[in-house]
Amino acid sequence: MAQSTVSLPEEEVYVQVVNPVSLTEDYLWLEVSVVSGNKPSTSKVIYMELLDRNGISVAGELAKLENGKVHSYLQIPPELSSDNYLLRVYTRISPYISGEKGVFQSMVSIINPQKPPVIDSSPQTEVKDLPSYLNPGYIDLKDSLIEVSLPLPGARDISIVINKASPLDHLDATINFNEMYTTGTSSNQDLIPELYGHIVKGKILESAIDTTEVFFLTLHGHQSHMFVDKPNEKGDVYFDTGNFSYFDYAVIQSTRPDEQVNFILSSPFWEETPNENFTLPVLKLSPRDEAFIKDKILARASHQYYLAPIEIPLAPLPFQYITDYSYQLDDYNRFEDMATTIREYVPMVLVRSQNRKTIFKNFNIPYNLVFKESPLLVIDGMPVFDSEAFANFNPKGIKSMDIVNRYFYINDLRFTGMVNLSSYKNDFGGFDLPKNALFITYKGLQKPYQFYAGSEATNKGSYFPDFRSILTWQSNKEIDTNGMLNFTFKPSLLKGNFELKVRYRAGQNKTFNTANYLLKLN
């Protein structure tokens, strides 16, 4: 860990919730902005979670910030009960450094058609702060698109959302940060900003801490990557994953491979929960809401099948070390063990027997000699400390082999060469997980998805079942020279009232304003 904790910046977190009333299995879309002063925050990770009325986190995701911004999402679990939930969004350090400004909080309503909420048949009460209808003079219909020209002089950083209007959108909920977290937001842990990528924190559970012990963390997903570090005096270990972002589980080992690793990975989320004095209002629906719920169910079915978010392709990361020799094993005759494979095809790695155990020695190319110590043996990013098991391993599931014939460093640790194997399926090629290793499910940053493309995605002819409840979501809009905000959108087959939400900054003000309007689409 090389990041500094000196002069931690204050951060302010702003979020536009695209669909604050959603069904289970929907994506809860969020537009996140994090600023420090008047500049984008240098943090690279944002944390998002939903808490139920008992303060229990029911959904959580990490997303990658680029210049302090990201379009992200929470996929709502199918088993959630219909209720109101607390949405929290923050960076690793913002709750501790910036308090209320560093934690965005908002109430969202989740409806599970299989687990309906309280049905209230009492007379409808007056709804406060309903937006007024958009001036008809600002709207024009051209072909199948609706054009809007809205006066917004001096506005910048503009984003637009048009949603099916909901009777729940204006349900008041008092969220007072200082009253919710009366125990304070001070931290007894080291506050380390995520300047390069997500930081995975682990903790040794031993009573006596050996600060010279080396821990190896291997993160696995579509690709694999290895990280190495030592504990501090408190037994905390911090692995900075940098640009390696998308993974599903972790394998932890130490330089004492004969002993079981007594180690845990800490949850990356903010541990503070609202105190018992904070209560979310109970979600109540009435028979009058039936048409709205049916529209949402129809929209969900349409979205899931025809307009599902598109996963943005990710460029694979190259092997993290500079190799001297690389081998594609399909180019060679296959042998039944790695010792024979290396002995026959890799002249720069010697295979020897020592104390009735097979060992490997790499040539040190710069010095034209053989290393006295053994190389680091790796399979799909996971170090293997049992050279005999590595030697007897059948490489039929291995695609390639990379050899490092020189000293290389990870942090302050020096290694005498490497033999690295990469499998076809990134599943260790059938090699058994070391008995003393620790296997832990741990999600990294969420894979980026593209919100469906609105009018472009629905331009498929009259047969297309276009039942979108979110008609458009547009960001980074700018006003014209006359101070007008101009945009277009395509209506769907759903009719009735839709709400237009415009989020923007006024002049040089760094905080966001929101203007709400109703649109009647028949």
Task: Give a quick rundown of the structure.
By secondary structure, the chain is mainly beta. Helix content is 7%, strand content 41%. The strands form 10 sheets. The chain has a 5-stranded mixed beta sheet. A 5-stranded mixed beta sheet has the order 22-28-29-26-27. Strands 1, 3, 4 and 7 form a 4-stranded antiparallel beta sheet that branches.
What does this structure look like?
- This protein is mainly beta and 522 residues long.
- 7% of the residues lie in helices and 41% in strands.
- The protein contains 5 helices and 35 strands.
- The chain has helices spanning 94-97, 177-180, 290-306, 338-345, 387-392, and strands at 12-17, 21-23, 27-36, 39-40, 45-51, 57-64, 69-75, 83-90, 104-111, 118-119, 139-142, 145-151, 155-164, 199-204, 215-221, 224-229, 236-240, 247-254, 263-265, 284-285, 310-311, 325-328, 349-354, 357-364, 369-370, 376-379, 382-384, 398-410, 413-423, 438-441, 449-450, 470-477, 484-489, 496-506, 512-521.
- Strands 2-9-8-5-6 form a 5-stranded mixed β-sheet.
- The longest helix has 17 residues, at 290-306.
- It is elongated.
- The termini are far apart.
The end-to-end span amounts to 59 Å
User: Can you give the helix content as a percent range?
Assistant: under 10%
- pLDDT under 50 segments (min length 5)? 1-5
Which strand order do you get reading across the main beta sheet?
2-9-8-5-6
How would you characterize the largest beta sheet?
5 strands, mixed
* Structural class computed from helices and strand pairing: mainly beta
Instruction: Characterize the quaternary organization of these chains.
Output: single chain
Strand share of the residues? Answer: 35-45%
Tell me, briefly, the overall form.
elongated
Give the rounded overall mean pLDDT. 90
Radius of gyration: 28 Å
Number of strands: 35
Number of helices: 5
